[in-house]
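Changelog note: in this version the structure field was regenerated for every chain. One regenerated record is shown below for reference.
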Amino acid sequence: VMVKPPEQLDLSEKELKQEHTRVLSAKDPNAPHNITHYSYKELCFKLDPAVEQMCTHFDMEGNLLHHEDEGGRQILAAKAQ
């Protein structure tokens, strides 16, 4: 069973065979375009030509135990022994 959304266009065979090219970019639009750092060696501000585009995410696996719950109290008591 194929379900077609009402807003989907009806394309001809020629339009279906036409190829479209898209380019994906990893450039962050929120990253600053120029950053200056103070150089204590040269006693002036220096323009940093390369702005780091890396975004770091934090991920930590673990368990959340509610200390007022009976099950949580049992697990915490077992860990304490």
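Spot check on this record: Helices lie at 13-17, 70-80. The chain has a mean pLDDT of 84.
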